[in-house]
Design a protein that fits this description.
homodimer; 417 residues; four-stranded antiparallel sheet; Aspartate Aminotransferase, domain 2; eight-stranded mixed sheet; 14% strand; alpha/beta; 16 helices
């Protein structure tokens, strides 16, 4: 990207010679939109032989291709005109009915009017930002928190306040103190297999958080992309199942079917869904009916559940490979979380290595990429994470994981020596 | 939708009995987001036996289903892992390369870095709003203008100024006067087969508009969803081909392949594309690679061009059927545009019939739906259109068109008598 140099020079050659001043051309909110961490990581993919623990990609070699072929074949045979036409902004009714049955199995009662399909759960975050956040509104997140939520919301100019994460998820005691002092608009968290930290919010805290939300009259955004990817232990109740009215629940098909279908959904009180639907009409009119019908067909005939079962086995092996490699090859003083599910773990590096500054070295010398911890800290809350990294274990083979962690561990040890 | 009644009552039953105050729950911008015209029209589809001239839907019975099957089959055979994985926010490179060749045939020189794929051109409008519009910024549009652009931009709180449309498109003389007086951020227009009016911006005005944009240092958003759907006459040069640096060009596959693929694109100076890409990451991460590969494969092997040729024949017949029916059955004093392409024409109703107030009568008594003219007038500019309607001719058979226009014409005559 050479836009930075253009911005620095403050001009762009116009055909008649007069310059366009790009420093003033854009809306103010664009100053908040650039994520340098992600931009740098895009370059990582270009380095030959790199092993990337940076992305959050599912293992594409296990995509349920035969089932996708079968379902698409059936849809294009039976209902092609509906599949290829515009859909409604709320989403395809049969898919929403299927989602309602999925959520019901998790203790969530949602009606059609309380359920909307979106173009990946990233769009849910964007639309939630659009309908809730006035400039200066206060959002309470975990620290660290999901970088995609920050990307979605930064343009709406909120102020972030944060409660720390520990091994049992968000420090709800800290959230309670913040709620006494700050006019929080909503609480955002990822209670199951947190991105980036891999931890789970324990049962007591789920109940405490709901009580806080009710007492202070705030909404909870429960972001649950990985809930079905559990490799050990028992499922905990969704926060949405504990308090229907105050919780806006969002999930996705990206990790259980494929990111290529660009499908997520939201369950929320009807007035929220109505606003999200209005915002969605302006944002992209409707989500692809073709991919909605695909997800619906695969869901109904059990193909998604079968695929999740396979992924649980594959990702368990990969998580175990990463945990074993870290134990074997990372510096002795390093620490990491031990996730019971999801795609990520979070590691603390000893000494004075700044993981953001160290990343280019890691990419060029160890040919390994990770996401520096600081990327997951909201503006105004970057009081930690400099010695942390997010490591993804879903998108590399056990052999690559062993190799990559050894190369990274050896390099870290060299720099700590 | 019962959200209105909830808003009126100002409360929503909470599980512990305390109310959620929905009147204050949302961001201020949501006050600008509801489009009552479109909401009412959604209900139209539920009335049995209705003939709808309201939507802008392509004729689904002519979708190129066999070509879609063939291309999807090939993609899922040859490159399924790429098709179902996350894509880059800029879009699939082969599709962007194909789009560059398409635009080159229209005199537009765009590089890969000047081209981004979006989730339908509605997303282009949303992202353009996000990266350009500060609250209070002035946008110059045609009057009437595309309602989807207003839906995309209203949440960013611009102020609209407008130049009238006539049979040769935007009144560029009016635009010139406005540009002397107002700090316009960008000019938005649809030069080819305007939605809603069906008119084309003539060649002289295209050149004049470019000169105005350069002189005043403003951008032009050239929205071109229907350019390839010409039924008579000669193509005029794209505005983008006359002035590369000041023009942000957007188009879509919704009318040439299928709306279900949710694919559009933007060509613009690279600093604009960089900002759009950042905004897109936050909005939905990336567009479906599966549907991008589908469009690319169909485009490369000529299937899109063949389909467009078929649509030109089908829509010519339907346009002619509507023009003949209007001539035969509409009130004598009514007028309408005679579009050389696209999906819509614009009609003026004589007397004191307000087309917005008349719509429920038209739907219940004539069982015909249209979009009232006022829907296409931006906030603060609703100084006309009350006696106008947009009529779509692409999504009904010639027989339905003849029937529907007769029923509507008879009802109008009865009310004018």
């Amino acid at each position: 990207m050479s836009s930075d140099s253009l911005l620095l020079s403050g001009s762009y050659p116009h055909r008649d010679g007069s310059p366009i001043d790009w420093t003033t051309a854009f809306a103010r909110r664009t100053d908040l939109m650039e994520n340098v961490y992600l931009r740098d990581l895009l370059k990582a993919a270009l380095i030959p032989g790199i092993i990337s623990f940076a992305g959050g990609l599912p293992a594409s070699e296990f995509f349920p291709i035969e089932d996708v072929k079968e379902s698409l074949g059936r849809i294009l045979q039976d209902e092609p005109h509906m599949a290829l036409q515009y859909g409604s902004p709320e989403g395809h009714v049969p898919l929403r009915e299927y989602l309602i049955t999925v959520m019901a199995r998790q203790g969530v009662t949602a009606s059609l009017e309380q359920t909307i399909v979106v173009t990946g759960s990233q769009q849910a975050l964007d639309l939630i930002g659009k309908v809730f956040i006035n400039p200066g509104d206060v959002i309470l997140t975990e620290r660290p928190t999901y970088v995609g939520a920050l990307q979605a919301w930064d343009p709406y100019e909120p102020r972030y306040v944060t409660a720390e994460l520990d091994a049992d998820g968000m420090r709800v005691d800290q959230a309670a103190e913040i709620l006494k002092q700050e006019p929080v608009k909503f609480i955002y968290l990822m209670p199951n297999f947190h991105n980036p930290a891999g931890v789970v919010l324990n049962q007591d805290r789920r109940q405490q958080l709901v009580e806080l939300a009710v007492r202070h009259g705030v909404f909870i955004i429960e972001d649950d992309p990985y809930g079905s990817l559990r490799y050990e232990g028992q499922d905990l109740p969704l926060i949405k199942s504990l308090c229907d009215d105050r919780v806006i629940y969002t999930s996705t098909f990206s990790k259980t079917l494929s990111p290529g279908v660009r499908l997520g959904w939201v369950a929320a009180p009807q007035p929220v869904i109505t606003r999200l639907m209005q915002a969605k009409q302006g944002a992209d009119l409707s989500t692809s009916v073709l991919t909605q019908m695909l997800a619906c067909d695969m869901g109904r005939r059990g193909a998604i559940q079968r695929h999740v079962g396979q992924l649980q086995a594959v990702y368990t092996t990969r998580r175990d490979a990463m945990l074993a490699a870290l134990e074997r090859d990372f510096p002795e003083e390093a620490k990491w979380t031990r996730p019971q599910g999801g795609l990520f773990l979070w590691a603390w590096i000893p000494g004075d290595i700044d993981t953001d500054q160290f990343l280019p070295t890691a990419m060029s010398q160890a040919r390994v990429a990770y996401v520096p911890g600081i990327a997951f800290y909201p503006r105004g809350n970057q009081t930690g994470g400099h010695n942390c990294m997010r490591l993804n274990f879903s998108n590399a083979t056990p052999e690559q994981i062993a190799q990559g962690i050894k190369r990274l561990g050896d390099l870290l040890k060299k720099h700590l020596a």
